[in-house]
Design a protein that fits this description.
214 residues, four-stranded parallel β-sheet, 1 helix, seven-stranded parallel β-sheet, mainly beta
């Protein structure tokens, strides 16, 4: 709640941040996470309304971004996640409405939690092949998305993951996840899959439009 705090410089050997440490710092504009930090805790930068720059130091050791860590950072536009990242927890970037570009250059991310990118502004999305879990409403109401490809190692697709994405035209799933929740897309969108697959049966049961790979 330090309402006039606009800039932070972290020491390069920082080991830990506390829960909610910079929550409601509504004037904070830039954050650079040092390479030594392995996790960002719950509510760490929640409601940073003017936060427009989030950087991770080269050779980052970060593995975990906690729940609501950057939720409602409404002016954040771009995030390039470190290669070491393994999990983005629930609502981590909830309602970051101007977040138009996210990039996953590494191969360790396994989990994207519930409502992690709820109501964000990205118009394209390239998920990493390492991903295993896309939890409930992960990209709910990301209204600028037009097409998404689900990586081959995803075993869990929670309900409503792309529901409310009104411009989404295609969701491509070339394998059979272990679990697929209800209403993962709007009825206007089409799921591309293989004929006779588990995904195909899901589409038939749910009444979704489907296109088949040859």
């Amino acid at each position: 709640g330090c309402s006039r705090l606009s800039r932070i410089e972290f020491p390069e050997h920082l080991q830990k941040l506390g829960i909610g440490v910079f929550s409601d710092c509504i004037s904070l504009k830039k954050v650079k996470i040092p390479a030594s930090l392995t996790s960002i805790p719950k509510n760490a930068f929640n409601n940073g309304r003017k936060l427009n720059s989030l950087e991770f130091a080269p050779n980052s050791k970060l593995t975990f971004i906690g729940p609501n860590a950057f939720s409602e950072c409404a002016t954040l536009t771009e995030v390039v996640f470190p290669a070491s990242l393994e999990e983005i927890d629930d609502r981590a970037f909830y309602k970051c409405k101007k977040l138009s570009c996210i990039s996953f250059p590494g191969g360790d991310l396994r989990v994207i939690g519930k409502q992690a990118f709820y109501f964000c502004g990205m118009d394209s999305l390239q998920l990493p092949d390492s991903l295993e879990v896309l939890d409930e409403s992960a990209f709910f109401k990301c209204c600028n998305l037009t097409s998404v490809v689900i990586p081959p190692n995803v075993r869990y697709l929670g309900k409503w993951i792309f529901h409310g994405c009104n411009r989404l035209q295609y969701l491509e799933i070339r394998h059979d996840p272990e679990f697929i929740g209800e209403w993962i897309i709007n009825k206007a969108a089409t799921i591309r899959c293989y004929k006779g697959s588990k995904v195909d049966r899901y589409c038939q049961q749910s009444g979704f439009k489907v296109e088949y790979f040859s």
